[in-house]
Fold:
Amino acid sequence: MKNKFIEEFTDYITVERRLSINSVNAYRMDLYSFLTELKKGEKEDLLKVKEKDIHNYLLALRNRRMSNATVARHLVSIKSFYIFLADNGHTSLNPAEKIQSARPWKKMPSFLTLDEVDRLLEQPDTRESLGIRDSTMLSLLYATGLRVSELICLRLSDINIEFGYIRSLGKGSKERLVPIGKDAKEKVEGYIAGARGQIMGEVESDILFVNRFGQKMSRQWFWKMIKTYAVKANISKKISPHTLRHSFATHLLDGGADLRAVQEMLGHADISTTQIYTHIMGEKMKEIYKKHHPRATN
Structure:
């Protein structure tokens, strides 16, 4: 059963804050999860929630062995919700105001070596139209650092082959331009000229990458596809579509790219999010030092 306050908040972050669909759904799910937990204690009025009720909820999440990051996200949802209620005159007290969340540890993102990237990109069978599509998607993902949700939403009108860039709509509906290299550019051009039409058949669509039915592809499908090719490439690391995004950023910084430029290409709102890749490079330098310096182990 829907709650009017949660639905009002959902409309607010959708229309006024213009958050992405994924972010809106995450907030909404977190709040309904909180409401479900309150009902277990026979409390259903969100306006009568006390600070201890929120503490009990966070404790319940930890007891379910949820990660610190997940618990912190739930608290952010609750805090944002009660700020909204207070700002709109629904309540004069914010029960979440004084609750502090321990900053979750940032997990070091997994990335592929240059050799692993090459092996992965070699796996699709480019003798077939679907293989050409897969090869193009993997190459473009690595060449641009796009999120998989951005990749599958690309339209023909987002591609500028002549000038070598794509227009992407990222989180919060923020638009950015991302350059593409020669290899990915040639693959996109070849895919549009041949394989895409063969896959589309009689279907008409502006979506760049389509499935065998000429429809927009799902994130789940792409997830399965990249894992399949990783197995064929004998890559033992856990791999996801985000792994190529991490590899894109890591290899750029390894080659001397400016952190701000990488932030722009990744579409990060805060440079602190991009800075995690500098920690990766720091760890890499430590490994090189230990391996090659004559007194590193003394």
